[in-house]
Amino acid sequence: MFLSPNESKTSELVKSLREKKIGIVAHFYMDPEVQGILTASKKHWPHIHISDSLVMADSAVKMAEAGCEYITVLGVDFMSENVRAILDQAGYSKVFMCLYH
Q1: CA-CA-CA-CA torsion for 3, 30, 88, 81, nearest 10 degrees?
Q2: DSSP characters for 22-82?
Q3: Cα(84)–Cα(17) distance, rounded to whole angstroms?
Q4: Confidence at residue 4, expressed as pLDDT on a 0 to 100 scale
Q5: What is the predicted pLDDT for the residue at 65?
Q6: Are the C-beta atoms of 27 and 75 separated by less than 8 Å?
Q7: Per-residue pLDDT averaged across 57-76, rounded?
Q8: Nearest by Cα to 55 from 73, 38, 69, 34
Q9: Which of 73, 57, 64, 71 is CA-nearest to residue 92?
């Protein structure tokens, strides 16, 4: 299902992510509406990644390497725990992380 999110809302999201240096890793099971907004936003902010749980942490490390200071995890608890552990192991323990599910 193709979704066309509101462009002004997408622009607001991208502006906020860019200003605050926030990366987003999301699991495939997120609602289609969320995935639509993230996919549209990724065209303007590369630090958004939708994948399975095994790839989320690797993507978060790449975002930290690129300068993201915050990582938002859209998934369940074990996914955020894995992202946190992999960030710490890669030397990014100061990258702040938030979980939304």
Answers
A1: 170
A2: EEEEEETTS-HHHHHHHHHHHTT-S-EEEE-HHHHHHHHHHHHHTT-SEEEEES-HHHHHH
A3: 19
A4: 76
A5: 98
A6: yes
A7: 97
A8: 73
A9: 64
Contacts of 36 (CB under 8 A, 6+ apart): 2, 3, 4, 5
Confidence band (pLDDT; 50, 70, 90) for 1?
very low
The length of the chain in residues reads 101
What are the C-alpha distances in Å from 3 to residues 6, 31, 33, 34, 85? Answer: 10, 11, 7, 10, 34
Full-model pTM: 0.93
Question: pLDDT of 7-62, one tens digit each?
Answer: 888 999 999 999 999 999 999 999 888 999 999 999 999 999 999 988 999 999 99
32 contacts 79 by C-beta, under 8 angstroms: no
Token readout for 75 is 């998934």
Dihedral angle computed from the Cα positions of residues 101, 64, 59 and 83, in that order, rounded to the nearest 10 degrees: -50
